[in-house]
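User: Predict the complex.
Assistant: Input components as received:
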Amino acid sequence: MKSEEIEKLIEKYKNGLSTIEEELFLFDHIKNIDPSLQAWSTFVKNNKTEPPENLNDKLWKSFQNKTTKKRRLYTSIISVSASILLFVGFFTINPGQEELSYSEKEALLNQARNMFSNNVQQEMEQTIIYENDMIVVYTTSNY
Amino acid sequence: MNKAEFRRNVFSLSERLYPMVARMLGNSANAEDAIQEIMMKLWIKRYKISQHPNITGFVFLTARNYCIDVLRKRKKEIDYSHLHIKTIEFEYQHEYLEWEELNNTIRKILEELPERQREVIIMRALDGYEIKEIAAATELKIEHVRVLLSRARKKLSTALKKIYSYEK
């Protein structure tokens, strides 16, 4: 590039109108043209901080771990609290065993009675002595 | 904004943020952690961000504000234009001395610039940011950034000419 064009670029640069590409180009071609700009370009080149290689990918990996860990933490907190609620609820809300109904009691009693020898009563002969609407009087005798 | 979109539109700017964050915090080792923090802040706001007309600009603004906050918390004097000191290996001692002299001279000139001019010229030269990115990060208008940049460059050039022109 001719020095005229470089001069033009310097003017553009000083007015804040040059692009980044133009500035990089200028910094590479300034030698022996403008010592002050050359000094500045040396300073810039040596002080620029370059990001480590593959920084985006590297950071993304640990970022993803962090966000999924957080989600995992939320899930486990929710599931633990749900189990505690369920556990506590089971003991407090459960009213205990209900009382047996009358017929169930009777059935249970009969079952118990059947366990004993139940022939005794059947083997008794009943002789009715007196009977009315209210009462029955009878005698029994064993064979 | 889902995770893939976040990665593409926001997280991919990590490398672009790195020079500024490392420079402002003055430590490259902290820069990666800082970027993670910045990204986490942005991730939480991801649904709002997706409506933003200038997502890139918003990312730069968030990063700069984060660094300013960190510096405030450190209770150090806030110096937005803190320069990351690099150790460069030189083959010869005189090369090193020359470099050190140049480095100190330019640092001194930069320190004498008005704060905004200094920040703008450094963001452009060392962080490699576009004018509109600087405007978004500093919450200034694009034209204002251009004016600041132009003034800073002219002042810097005048100051350097006094020192270096006789060597021509």
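Chain A is about 65% helix and 10% strand.
Let me know if you want any component modeled separately.
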